[in-house]
Input
Amino acid sequence: MRITLLGTGTSHGIPVASCGCSVCTSEAEENKRYRCSLWVEVKGSSLIIDTSPEFRLQTVRSGIRDVDGVLITHAHADHLHGIDDLRPFGWKKKIPIWAKQDVCDEVEARFPYIFRAPLQEGGGTPDISMNVIDPSRPFTVAGVTVTPLPVLHGKLEIMGYRIGSMAYITDCSAISPKTESLLQNLDTIVLGALRYKTHETHFSIPEALAFIKKISPGRAYLTHFSHDVDHFQLKADLPEGVEPAWDGLTITIPD
Output
């Protein structure tokens, strides 16, 4: 399996519009962050987790030619609002999207033009199908088994996902013992860590590190950074086995 971090920034993206801080004005590519999406290549299938607002740019930059399925973690704009950019991937086939019931409902309410008959030719819509997951049970997408990982994003229950020995959890402020039990024997975890200071709806960097130490994966990458986090300073601060992710990072994971 191979995963590519298509975006590693928080909801504002980095640089943040109108901001002149040292991270937003940094020339380093590692400090330029699109909103979060992940590309998973496994067993001959091409899966996407979240369609960020930069999804078109992300697919072009990473050379994505095919999408066999999409997993949505939750319906916040920074994880969903690139959904229309699935259009060219659905010219020859319908693309299944998998999410919790509330997220499926939100997609249909927020993007009604996708699901109704077109008034005229031209101005096409993405050819997708919405599929409801049971957060308590694994499911299959394009021949790949996916395990949902319910976590709390503040008061909101959202999904992380485990595929093989890889787990991906972005917006997270608490992980239950039940979900923690699904995170054993990992080769790789990608985990959100917004900033050094605490936040009501996200792990801070110290909180993410404490959880990583608790489950002891083979390796860990932090993601979903705000502009309070400089890549190189964070890299110097992290313990062995933990690294800051960056846009375009590709990781190979044993089957």
About this structure: The longest helix spans residues 205-215. The domain at 2-14+21-252 is CATH 3.60.15.10 (Metallo-beta-lactamase; Chain A). The radius of gyration is 18 Å. The helical segments are 55-62, 77-80, 101-110, 177-181, 205-215, 231-237.
